Amino acid sequence: MSVRLRFQLILVTLLVCASCAYALAAPGHERTQWGSNISVGQGEETGELTCFGCSIRVRGHVAGDIAVFGGSLVIEDGGVVDGDVAVFAGGMRLESSVKIGGDVAVFGGRIRRDSGASIGGDTANFGWPISILFIFVLPLAFFAAFVWFVIWLIRRLMRPAVPATA
């Protein structure tokens, strides 16, 4: 089995275990989805929302935080979020009369915000070019350089000594 495949399997296993542990520990109003969109209807209230590889649409009230990985978040007119919002590798759209009580962070996407939308905390937006560089390319480059150095060092130490001829 290749090193890359092992790394991917370990990463997926850790993510699955973490989300299962979170889902088992969380009360009933929280929702965690893998690849299936989440929708909070008008007049509906829910706790925290977590979405991996899917999108979230909010028309009602979210009493906790929202986290989206690899998808988008749309909060429509009248939508309310009491906690923080984080979107990784996706965009976010806030329509008018939207209220977010906490901070908003979008990595690898854009925030489209109507002038009537209010955010109670700080807003951070790292768009595609800079976020891809810092989040993916630089760590992979450092890892590749480290692997190259280890291989070079092992080959150098394993090289047989050649006696000098006169």
Structure description:
There is one protein chain. Helices cover 33% and strands 30% of the residues. It is α/β, with parallel strands linked by helices and 166 residues long. The chain has 2 domains: 98 residues, no CATH class; 31 residues. Strands 1-4-7-10-13-16 form a 6-stranded parallel sheet. Strands 2-5-8-11-14 form a 5-stranded parallel sheet, with no helix packed on it. The longest helix has 31 residues. The chain starts with a helix and ends in an 8-residue tail after the last helix.
Q: In short, what is this structure?
A:
The chain is of the alpha/beta class and 166 residues long. 33% of the residues lie in helices and 30% in strands.
Topology overview:
Elements: H1 3-25, E1 31-34, E2 38-40, E3 45-46, E4 49-52, E5 56-58, E6 61-62, E7 66-69, E8 73-75, E9 80-81, E10 85-88, E11 92-94, E12 99-100, E13 104-107, E14 111-113, E15 118-119, E16 123-126, H2 128-158
Parallel strand pairs: 1-4, 2-5, 3-6, 4-7, 5-8, 6-9, 7-10, 8-11, 9-12, 10-13, 11-14, 12-15, 13-16
